[in-house]
Design brief:
Largest sheet: 4 strands, antiparallel
Helix content: 25-40%
Number of strands: 15
Structural class: alpha+beta
CATH topology of the largest domain: Immunoglobulin-like
CATH class of the largest domain: Mainly Beta
Strand order of the largest sheet: 5-4-8-9
Oligomer: single chain
CATH superfamily of the largest domain: Immunoglobulins
Radius of gyration: 30 Å
Number of domains: 2
Order of helices and strands: HEEEEEEEEEEHEHEEHEEH
Number of helices: 5
Length: about 260
């Protein structure tokens, strides 16, 4: 009988020890997340098919280091946060189509201290990113009805009407080289002419090739990128929207945003 009682005492000791570890671990796991402050940052626009990035700021306002943290949107990111510090992490969500892309729920979790338990907290931010159409893979020349005058209904063409660029070929006149693009290291392009001397083109939905709306928008997107890349002034037209010829990041952003939300 004494041996049985002695053996039972060891079982009780082991049980109480494991129970103590169990409850202490739960407490520390809870404290691993308690008090953290999360804020969302800005998201950048992307093209359809790319991953949209969402910046999340995590603030640890207490004098306790946070170990074994994990934050997840679609793919998990592991991190450790020092006491009284702030860090940021960028989470990615794959896009499929143009327009507003809304990401899912961000989840913050921890397995501290022993990895026996996982505590988590869903963070229901409204994460949105604007998605531009996917640029067409076809390298088509700019439309041949581009100038501001042609856009306003002038149909007569002379011999000096600028309507786009093409890659430089041996034998092209040196006077037709687009030196601005060459100076930027973008390669050699020759200017194409067909009427007056207007050095601007019009990118119009009605003139964009494609079997459906998405293909047309995709080609317009490609033209906007190409025109901006070589520094050419371009006007932009969609049903119900007309942007006068211009260049620069602000102008291209307005055009791409219009394509995304069309």
């Amino acid at each position: 009988m004494r041996n049985v009682g002695y053996n039972n005492n060891l079982v009780y000791l082991l049980t109480f020890l494991l129970a103590g570890i169990f409850f202490i671990t739960i407490l520390h796991s809870y404290k691993a997340l308690a008090g953290l402050v999360l804020q969302k940052g800005q998201s950048k626009a992307v093209f359809a098919g790319e991953a949209a990035g969402f910046t999340i700021y995590i603030n640890n306002p207490v004098n306790v280091e946070r170990f074994n943290l994990q934050i997840k949107l679609e793919q998990p990111e592991s991190l450790t946060i020092k006491p009284q510090s702030k860090t940021c992490v960028t989470l990615y969500s794959l896009t499929q189509k143009r327009g507003w892309h809304t990401a899912g729920t961000v989840t913050l979790s921890s397995t501290y201290p022993l990895g026996l338990f996982r505590v988590w907290s869903p963070v229901r931010f409204t994460l949105k990113a604007l998605v531009y159409p996917k640029p067409s893979l076809q390298e088509l020349p700019f439309p041949e009805t581009p100038s501001a005058q042609a856009k306003q209904g002038v149909s007569q063409k002379g011999v000096d009407d600028f309507y786009g660029l093409k890659e430089y070929l041996p034998g092209d006149s040196i006077k037709q080289i687009h030196w601005k693009a060459f100076a930027k290291g973008l390669g050699l392009f020759s200017k194409q002419y067909g009427g007056d001397s207007s050095a601007e083109i019009w990118l119009d939905y009605e003139n964009a090739p494609g079997h459906n709306t998405e293909e047309r928008l995709s080609q317009l997107c490609r033209w906007v990128i190409d025109a901006e890349r070589i520094g050419m002034a371009y006007g932009f037209s969609l049903p119900g929207l007309k942007l006068l010829p211009d260049t620069g990041i602000s102008h291209s952003r307005k055009c791409l945003e219009a394509l995304a939300l069309f």
